[in-house]
Automatic annotation (TrEMBL):
Residues 2-152 form the N-acetyltransferase domain. CDD domains: NAT_SF (cd04301). It comes from the Bacteria. Signal peptide: none annotated. PANTHER family: AMINOALKYLPHOSPHONATE N-ACETYLTRANSFERASE-RELATED-RELATED, BLL8307 PROTEIN. Keywords: Acyltransferase, Transferase. Pfam families: Acetyltransf_1. This is GNAT family N-acetyltransferase.
């Protein structure tokens, strides 16, 4: 059994998970195609974060939602530790993030991921996200995949 909860961006478990994700992505993509988010550079009002933990409260994964001034929001930092993959935790994280977006009246969710992360692209597709063009602040990049979903 896994539980998911919202945490402050300064949470130490979140910081460890994000550090693992950043290291993973840094191996896959060159710096100019690696769109890492420095959580400390974003205001508390702009960012909401979740972590999922196992029964022993060991962090298994995380995700974040970055709110934009135009009312849209961007999914960031979705990561599941390798030993926890294949247990539908990504779907739990996406569902929690979508709930936070709905509570905050954000109806358009967007994301950027990389072409070398096919399992996460498949996750987003299962969750109803469609491919789209690059959105601000991104520019088209042959190593990036852009997706979006309109919430009801």
């Amino acid at each position: 059994m896994f539980n998911i909860s919202e945490v402050d961006k300064g949470n130490s478990d979140l910081a460890r998970l994000v550090s693992e994700l950043d290291a993973f992505q840094s191996e896959l993509y060159p710096a100019e195609s690696n769109h890492l988010l420095d959580l400390s550079a974003v205001s508390d009002e702009q960012l909401r974060c979740v972590i999922v933990c196992d029964e022993g409260d060991t962090p298994a994964g995380c995700g974040a939602l970055l709110f934009h001034e135009d009312g849209s929001a961007e999914i960031k930092q979705v990561y599941i530790r390798p030993e926890y993959r294949g247990r539908k935790l990504g779907e739990k994280i996406i569902s929690a993030i979508e709930g936070i977006a709905s509570e905050n009246n954000s109806r358009l969710l967007q994301l950027e991921t990389g072409i070398h992360q096919q399992p996460v692209i498949a996750l987003y597709r299962r969750c109803g996200y469609d491919m789209c063009d690059a959105f601000s602040p991104y520019k088209a990049d042959p190593l990036s995949v852009f997706m979006r979903k309109e919430l009801l």
